[in-house]
Amino acid sequence: MGASSSTEQPASAEQRELENIAASTGALPLLRKSFSNLSDPQTNAISVQTLQQCFHLCYEDPVCESQQKPESFPRLLDHLGSSIVDLFFLSEKGGINWLGFLGGYVKCCGRMSTSMSLNILLRIFAMAVKKLGLSSNLEFEPDDADCKINGSLLPSDLLLLLWMCWAMLWNVRTLKSSERKGNLLLPDINHLVLSAVVACAEVDSSFDLWNCNIVGLDVQLPVGKFLNWAITTAPILSDCLTQYVNRRLQISVLAEDEAGSSESISGDMSPNASQALLLTRGRAWAISLAPRSTITEEILKLCFSADIVGTDENLLYRSSTHGKGLNRFWSNVEGYHGPLLVLISANSEDAYQDNNKARKWIIGALTQQGFENKDTFYGSSGNLYAISPIFHVFSPSGKEKNYVYSHLHPTGRVYESHPKPVGIAFGGTTTNERVFIDEDFAKLTVRHHAMDKTYQPGSLIPNQGFLPVEALISEVEVWGLGGKTAKEVQDSYKKREELFTEQRRKVDLKTFATWDDSPEKMMMDMMGDPNRVQREDR
């Protein structure tokens, strides 16, 4: 049936080429099974309606973390499956045959550049918007092999596009069966949209990032500039379509109890469930969209967990819970040998109209290894992030390797003519760190990127000038991204240190032979007559 019967006849050169391309992606066995399962045995083809239903995505009443929610989004998702099929899968009189099925998959999910994958996402989005009856400023050249796009996007369009990508990933990671209707939680991703707005549109310095209405913002984002922004800031965004198509085909083949490891979300779905944390789902997703690294999968687990607030095994330190200060921080992160994500929330009142209200912003730093008590910079790699109110990634520049600095007070009372700073730092040089947290976790200093050759240049906070910015720290979070192994190693280290500490506190009197050798006797003699001359035994 299906692909098997097509192999009974000599395969054409076109079919062999498409099968080779599909095999290079590793999806050919899945395509054979899904075609066999979806196709009609009599016509040896898949009906258009069957394939549209396979890719259909429907969430009736999504829960939104943000107050800015376009009402058209649920209806937009209703047209996702039909848009994918109409654009890429060629249908003949009897339906979609094996050649059309292979060609459609290769067109939308084959090996291609990131820019091409993003073009395909935009085509699907524009088709779904058109089916919904809304207008779009995107124009495509139909006969162009490279799928050139002209036009622009509104910020509200970009919000819908990003949420469409999120919904596909949510479906991939949370539902087991195409028959089951689950809940959809839409994260607050205003920081991602504003990042594209600032990068693509012409906005003046008076643009208020803190009180911006994304849905009502009337600025045009040229599609060329948007693609450049996406390739630089969120290149992993292009993978969501391939993951979604593969997952839906898997579900069409496998039984409900064998559809994979995805689990239905049943935790706290309230909009404010994760808002108390600095690492919300939207911020975690933005970090995961950056160039792929070893932490991508761990970050995605946080994005799509049932309850991000309950992920205690990943949240190593939180200043409001464990207490502020370098010593409290160190007692919670010491012994963790794996990637760490540090988030810092601070506020300043500079150039603010109402001085009673402080401008709050969040920055972050990623280290690929645990913290060490050193008076010099160290590390092998890392990233800096501007997270809120606007998102941006600052990857390593390759010029220097001053990734992280963490120095505690020396244990011995040794005089130092030039003592090294005590605190946590990222980038820059000693005494001229790009980001520096003092030992009390009370003050944060952010310097201009000219002081730093380790990370890429750019402003970590809005309207950052050349002078250092000093702000009051309101919250610090440290998330462990090394998986279960790194956490188990840290737990073993902590238990061993607690055992050593307990042993040092105890004094075993049996180790002293007689009363004359005991420390109590020595102390009593000193208190009685400290100047008494004693004969020394030789």
TrEMBL record:
PROSITE patterns: TLDC (PS51886). It comes from the Eukaryota. Residues 286-482 form the TLDc domain. InterPro entries: TLDc_dom. This is TLDc domain-containing protein. The lineage of its organism: Eukaryota, Viridiplantae, Streptophyta, Embryophyta, Tracheophyta.
